[in-house]
Design goal:
Layout: E1 8-12, E2 15-21, E3 48-54, E4 60-65, E5 71-75, E6 79-87, E7 93-103, E8 111-113, E9 119-123, E10 128-134, E11 139-140, E12 145-149, E13 159-163, E14 170-175, E15 194-199, E16 208-209, E17 215-219, E18 224-229, E19 236-240, E20 247-248, E21 251-252, E22 261-265
Length: 268
Amino acid sequence: MASFSYAALAVFLSTFLAIAHGQSSSASACSTTLTPKNSIQPTVASGYRMALVATGLTKPRSIEFDNNGNLLVVQQGAGIANLVFQDNGGTCLSVESSKNVIENADLNHGLALSQDGKTLYASSAEAAYSWVYDPATGTVGDTNTTLVTGMNNNDHTTRTLLMSRKVPGTLVISRGSTSNVDPLAEQLSTGHSQLKAFELDNLPSEGYDFNNDGLLLGWGLRNSVGVAEHPDTGGIYSVENSVDEIMRDGKDIHEDNPGEGKCLIPTS
């Protein structure tokens, strides 16, 4: 991912929040301050500040900064947008311009860029695709390439994508379970609840099939939406969104004590 001009960016309910640490500017000094339209107010740790910087998005799921510092956003059921920010320091950001890069209602979550920033990757419930991308114009080529297919299942239909920096040309895909509790995930041949890696430099002409191809990195991972790579070892971190409606001592604990986990999958 390209370097941030501030510490982090979070997505919540069709809005973007800029989160900054150790900056001196104040929200009151920002002439572009936006006000959330809902009652939800995220909290941040001591020493951090946050501000709403973009609204009016359609179910934003994943974000990536391109080599020009512009933000690519997957909007579930709509496609991919490019946001150009006016950066006034700290959390004082405003959208200077925005445009659709790809209009495709099937795209629903996954987003990644190649190490040189010139290839854009995105996913639907069924497949992962790539486009030639020009960060200077924020546009893609006229056609795309189908990379991986065969991922359709019910319930957890997002496919998180990660382009490895440790092993260039390797695409990691997270595929979740087909139901809240999925017995089929015990069978590796189903491809359910798995993390796999695919070598794009050796892409077959018809693309890979998720169930039968690729390197299996981990399985039994019910719904690992958050996936990241350790910068030194290349190990893969995944955040496990665990089972819903789970009862303990007669109480549903999945909201307040869900037993979510962070996994580290060694790759060497």
